[in-house]
Amino acid sequence: MKPLSTFILTVLTAMIITGCGTDPAEEELQQAAPEVENKGSVEEVEFPHIHGLAFTEDGEKAFIPAHSGLRVYEDGVWKKVEGPRHDYMGFTMTAEGFYSSGHPSMQTDYENPLGIIKSTDEGKTIEVLGLEGEVDFHLMAAGYNSGAIYVMNPAPNSSMDDTGLYMTTNEAGDWEKGSMNGVSGEIIAMAAHPEEQSTVAVSTEKGVYLSQNAGDTFEQVLDGSPTPALTFTHDGKMLAAKGIGKETTLQVIDLSGEKQQIQAPEIKEEDAISYIAQNPQSAETFMVTTFKKDIFYTEDSGETWEQTAKEGESQNNS
């Protein structure tokens, strides 16, 4: 087995290379492809890639951007979402809708890349907030109710003079750079506190780091292992997935650093959790995805997990 840090960084690199950018020929085939029905009357849904995960504010739906548009989990079934099949990256949900970056559908007139966009109707339409044609943010996090958006900027652009961590509180009108003092390693994941604008967490191959001053300084709150997935629970605690395969654990960390553990689903060898989301209406309901495109769902804080997709294929019941 590969060392965990090597495995995760290799997978992340592959995901960025293969999952960034929509090939026109591929998209034309996806747009023209007929709907395939399996398992009785229930459509089989595919996940070419998984670029994020989030629940809606009412808790009724979970969304995944899957390279060729959005997928939605509702009433125990995965479905394709109507609307343009943008290749969303940096997907992050708030109480009002979602923010994202990525690449536009070839069937639309948006410039590539999208810059930063917002949707308040579950992706049926989008509003470009800024940086269209300039930048694709692979790492982005928005506070669920705070109005703060954080991005990891990959290259200088018209709004940001440097690479690194930036925050906006007026939907990309102005950006403030964080110094990121105290962080060690390559940033793998990022999460914004649901209520506090200045509280943000990042993870690297060396653990989880927390900042309470908009990213200027960070304190390490989880060490000893790469942590490929990170989010905030809706009561303001960090939820981090660390480890690989059967060694995967889900760690709940409060702002003081105190830790608890949630039972993780059974992860295949040489796979790891890539995204985590908590239902805002049910503190015990979580969904996780893996790098090999398995998806798991629990309504009892991990005591039992249901697998809703396997290797990029939905497990819908007829």
TrEMBL record:
It comes from the Bacteria. InterPro entries: Glycosyl_F510_1955-like (IPR054817), WD40/YVTN_repeat-like_dom_sf (IPR015943). NCBIfam families: glycosyl_F510_1955 (NF045728). This is F510_1955 family glycosylhydrolase. It comes from Virgibacillus sediminis.
